[in-house]
Design a protein that fits this description.
Layout (H helix, E strand, L loop, with lengths): L1 H12 L11 E12 L2 E15 L2 E11 L5 E11 L6 E14 L6 E15 L2 E13 L5 E14 L1
Antiparallel strand pairs: 1-2, 1-8, 2-3, 3-4, 4-5, 5-6, 6-7, 7-8
């Protein structure tokens, strides 16, 4: 049974459609820093994506903001299109929705936006990406706002 599982994993990693093809799933992690409500945080995230068609993924992600108060947790839903190229460099563009859960006295809020960047296929089933996210939101305190920030991710696909 172990041999069948190992062969299946190796076969899926060598699948000729690549890691951004229909049916593939990828998981990623991210670590960064951000500030909010006058405080600095370390932001740790995990995400999972499923390719509904070649080069188009839909996913879900979680980010926890650690190191200060108020407590902040976020859930996001990205939709991302990877431009097919003959190289290991895949430009991408997408849309994202994010909901922020924040402890009292602050109010939860949502953000909408877009993201662009480049994914680099580092092996048959792994990639890294670097890009830019631009979001629009109303946090209930400062009215409508926009913010942009870089994103760096690493992930694997099967």
């Amino acid at each position: 049974m172990k041999k069948i599982i190992i062969i299946s994993l190796l076969t899926s990693a060598l699948y000729s459609g690549g890691i951004f093809s229909v049916g593939h799933k990828n998981f990623g992690v991210s670590v960064g820093s951000s500030s909010g409500y006058g405080n600095s945080y370390t932001v740790v995230g995990v995400n999972a994506n499923y390719f509904i068609t070649d080069n188009l993924s839909v996913g879900v992600g979680y980010q926890g903001w650690f190191g200060d108060e108020p407590e902040i947790n976020e859930i996001s839903i990205p939709v991302t299109y990877y431009v097919p190229t003959q190289s290991n460099y895949k430009p991408y563009a997408g849309l994202t929705y994010r909901h922020t859960f924040i402890e009292d006295p602050y109010k939860d809020h949502s953000a909408y936006g877009g993201r662009v960047g480049i994914a680099i296929v580092t092996s048959g089933n792994a990639f890294m990406s670097i890009g830019w996210v631009q979001e629009y939101y109303d946090d209930g305190i400062n009215g409508s706002q926009s913010r942009g920030y870089p994103e760096v991710n690493a992930g694997f696909s099967f």
